[in-house]
Task: structure prediction
Amino acid sequence: MGFGLMNPRIPFTPSPGAFYWGGWGGSITVVDPDTRTSIAYAMNKMGDSTLGDQRSARIIAATYAALQTMTGVTRTRRI
Result:
């Protein structure tokens, strides 16, 4: 068990210190210590037709858009 680290090939978040892991069907967990945020998504119906589903990516994007609106933060950095 473990987590993946953010990298340019998989840009789930604008925060380089965030880490993630996903599962079959589109479930995902993102933990971002820089913004003190965690995001988790698990679908209620799973099947082979959910492969490549963008719901989790849209939830992550909406979360970071809301954070930006609330805090004005566009980019985070590690200290």
About this structure: Residues 4-71 form one domain. The longest strand covers residues 28-32.
